[in-house]
């Protein structure tokens, strides 16, 4: 089967190899963008038997592109902000106690 192609959503298309009536082997397309800007991206796969007319039906297979960007979850961001807030609170309390002791020392003198 010549002209067999696979399309990976908006990531592009590539050649495919016919294995048997229920199997084809798709190669992933090259990614032109910066892989370090993506953590994970899902793309539906569709097939063109003639190399041009991709199936309109929804594919039952998805491809997961894993880039090099770090995964930062919402929980991680909240925890980091909480630690920063706690540190700020501790510094404020320390300064308050230091000023209070300084005022008590001036009154006693």
Task: Explain what the structure shows.
This protein is of the alpha+beta class and 109 residues long. Helices cover 32% and strands 28% of the residues. It contains 1 helix and 5 strands. The protein has a 5-stranded antiparallel β-sheet, with no helix packed on it. The protein starts with a strand and ends with a helix.
Features:
109 residues; alpha+beta; 2 domains; five-stranded antiparallel β-sheet
| Count of beta strands | 5
Give me the number of helical elements.
1
Low-confidence stretches at least 5 residues in length (pLDDT < 50)? none
User: How much of the sequence is in beta strands?
Assistant: 25-35%
Main sheet record: 5 strands, antiparallel
Strand order of the biggest β-sheet: 3-2-1-4-5
Cα distance spanning the termini: 98 Å
Q: From the helix content, strand content and strand pairing, which structural class follows?
A: alpha+beta
* Overall pLDDT: 80
H/E element sequence: EEEEEH
Radius of gyration: 29 Å
Q: How many domain modules?
A: 2
In helices, the fraction of residues equals 25-40%
Shape: rod-shaped
């Amino acid at each position: 089967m010549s002209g067999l192609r696979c399309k990976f959503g908006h990531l592009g298309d590539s050649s495919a190899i016919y294995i048997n009536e229920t199997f084809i082997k798709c190669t992933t397309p090259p990614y032109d963008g910066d892989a370090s800007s993506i953590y994970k991206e899902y793309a539906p796969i569709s097939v063109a038997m003639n190399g041009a007319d991709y199936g309109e039906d929804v594919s039952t297979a998805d491809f997961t592109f894993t880039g090099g960007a770090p995964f930062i979850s919402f929980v991680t961001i909240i925890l980091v902000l909480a630690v920063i807030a706690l540190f700020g609170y501790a510094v404020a309390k320390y300064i308050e106690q230091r000023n209070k002791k300084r005022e008590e020392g001036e009154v006693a003198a």
